[in-house]
Amino acid sequence: MIVGHYASALIPYAKNREYPFWLLLLCANIPEFLWLLLALVGVETPQPASLFDATLQNLQVQMPFSHNLLPGLFQALITAAIIFAVTRKRALTAWCGALVFWHVLCDAVVGYDHQLLGPGSVTTSLNTYVTMPHVALTIELVFAVAAVAWFDYARHRDGVPLTRGRRIALYALFTIGIASWYPVATTPLRQMLH
């Protein structure tokens, strides 16, 4: 997933709006931020290197530290330990750790080839960005829309409904954010610009 991870932060925020939303967004994307850092230092470098030549389908990258199952669980535990040490709030701690691990689990369904621990270990993903990128994006879109719908429902249930404008903005943000990836799922940007 790419944009859908941000939508997952709405689920715990719907449960308790006192949770810092920025923290939930951060935790939902820790594996992605770790991957970007590792890619920048040459550890989990994607090929092709240029975004103009990359598609979801042709991107090749091994993410043993940022997106594999056991390292993802380790990231979740470290994140939870840090959140608890700072806040002493058990529910917030649990949600933050769960969001980190949820990221890895979502990427097992909508994402690239990931393993239990590293290359050569048991595969724990469907590799849908390579095998069926448009279906993968559709699954991500459905998840994001469902997360927004849950957030909208929870706010309405709690007597603090979203305004029509905010509801439309949330649905539009995720729908446009995910739909914008459909063209580059199989066709490089460089080819589209020529």
Characterise the protein shown here.
The chain is an all-alpha fold and 194 residues long. It has one domain. It has ten helices and no strands. Helix 3 runs parallel beside helix 6, helix 5 packs antiparallel against helix 6 and helix 8 runs antiparallel to helix 9. The longest helix has 25 residues.
Would you count the extended β strands for me? 0
Query: CA-to-CA gap between the ends?
Result: 28 Å
- The secondary-structure class comes to mainly alpha
Number of helices: 10
Low-confidence stretches: none
Q: How many discrete structural domains?
A: 1
Gyration radius (Cα, Å) is 17 Å
What's the short version?
The protein has helices at residues 4-8, 10-15, 21-28, 30-40, 69-87, 90-109, 128-131, 133-157, 164-179, 189-193.
Keywords for this entry:
single chain, 61% helix, mainly alpha, 194 residues, 0% strand, 10 helices
Describe how the helices and strands are arranged:
Layout: H1 4-8, H2 10-15, H3 21-28, H4 30-40, H5 69-87, H6 90-109, H7 128-131, H8 133-157, H9 164-179, H10 189-193
